[in-house]
Specification:
The protein has 356 residues and is an alpha/beta fold. The protein has 13 helices and 10 strands. It has an 8-stranded parallel beta sheet. Strands 8-9 form a two-stranded antiparallel sheet. Helix 2 packs across helix 3 and helix 4 runs parallel beside helix 5. The chain is globular. The relative contact order is 0.12.
Length: 356
């Protein structure tokens, strides 16, 4: 198999894919060394893939006056290439693609130019399009490169899709995975059932993006009846902004969860873990304030660990919500077993030296 085929096989098996943030200088220009430092952290942590130019990277990178889409995907690709060469491995490269069909196709072509393996196709900002038009858009992008479908929660610009939409999406040949970030159990079931019932069931891998239910998604074996036969489908990995923090521990957590899922009975400690992870996510992503501080919240956790120099966003108005910093204090005190502070402290200087 060539590198791209190996990457798609790894995607199908399920892994940890952080949705990477953007490091900025004090004048809000891109901090290239800072971005490369973050990549060193995620790769050293054992992430099986990297997703960039996504929500956590800030959609403003596409604004013409900012123009950071291409620099970001280039820098991330370069760091992955270096890591692959030094470690004789393959890391899945995922780039976000947004906007109307012409824009999404153009972004997919650029991602392909830089060696990406798949695009996460966002439905954000397109609520005026019909489901027929959204399916046609997916088909157009899928002609360029493999697509990861995306159920985006309504609170951050997504929309509710019918079950039939997901049936039709699953039928598109080059759709290789779906990220479900609906933050809604009923809508999540629509996605899982559509994938389970699809003739392409084994060609589509489910990734959780449900930050409010990460552990439960991964623990669950979903079962459905198909013409009198039982069919099962599981979430095999996560493509998550939440997994850009405490990533080294997340890699082990995913392995533990998938092993536990194969047992006849799930240990109660995993249900406790599920609640702890959701509590942490609610604070980091600022659920109490409609996710207004979600990206600065990610930045603040990484800043405290020495991985980011500041919490600045491209939008000057995007910052921590009142009380969010104190809530992060609470989470760090309540759940020290979830962080990877010791791992970062041990390796941070060597990562910094690599990007100088």
């Amino acid at each position: 198999m060539n590198r791209h085929e190996i990457a798609l096989k790894k995607l199908a098996e399920g892994t940890v894919i952080p949705a990477t943030p953007l490091a900025l200088n004090e004048d809000r220009t891109i901090n290239e060394k800072g971005l490369r430092l973050l990549m060193n952290y995620y790769l050293a942590s054992g992430a099986g893939g990297i997703a960039t130019a996504v929500h956590t990277t800030q959609f403003e990178i596409r604004d013409p006056e900012i123009g950071l889409f291409e620099p970001v995907i280039r820098i991330v690709s370069e760091e992955i290439d270096r890591y692959e060469k030094e470690n004789d491995t393959v890391i899945i490269k995922v780039a976000g693609a947004c906007g109307p069909v012409e824009q999404a196709v153009a972004e997919a072509k650029l991602a392909k130019k830089y060696g990406y393996d798949a695009v996460l196709l966002s439905p954000g900002g397109l609520n005026h399009l019909s489901e027929d038009e959204m399916i046609a858009r997916t088909k157009a992008v899928a002609e360029v490169m493999p697509v990861i479908g995306f159920y985006l929660q309504t609170a951050v610009g997504g929309r509710v899709f019918t079950y039939n939409y997901w049936e039709r999406l699953c039928a598109i040949d080059n759709v290789v995975a779906i990220k479900c970030a609906s933050f809604n159990r009923y809508q999540t079931l629509d996605v899982v059932r559509a994938a389970a019932m699809s003739p392409r069931k084994d060609d589509i891998t489910l990734y959780t993006g449900n930050d409010d239910s990460i552990v439960i998604d991964l623990l669950t074996k979903f079962e459905f009846d198909k013409n009198g036969e039982k069919v099962t489908k599981c979430f095999e990995g996560g493509l998550l902004g939440h997994w850009t923090m405490w990533t080294n521990n997340v890699v082990q957590m995913l392995a533990d969860i998938k092993a536990e899922r194969e047992k006849d009975a799930i240990s109660a400690k995993f249900l406790t873990l599920a609640a702890q992870v959701t509590d942490a996510n609610g604070v980091f992503f600022d659920a109490a304030n409609g996710f207004a501080g979600c990206i600065p919240g990610v930045h603040e956790v990484l800043r405290r660990q020495g991985l980011m120099g500041n919490i600045l966003c491209l939008n000057p108005n995007e910052t921590l919500s009142p009380g969010q910093s104190e809530e992060i204090d609470r989470i760090q005190k309540a759940y020290p077993h979830l962080n990877d502070d010791a791992f970062i402290k041990k390796n941070l200087e060597s990562w910094k030296a690599r990007v100088e």
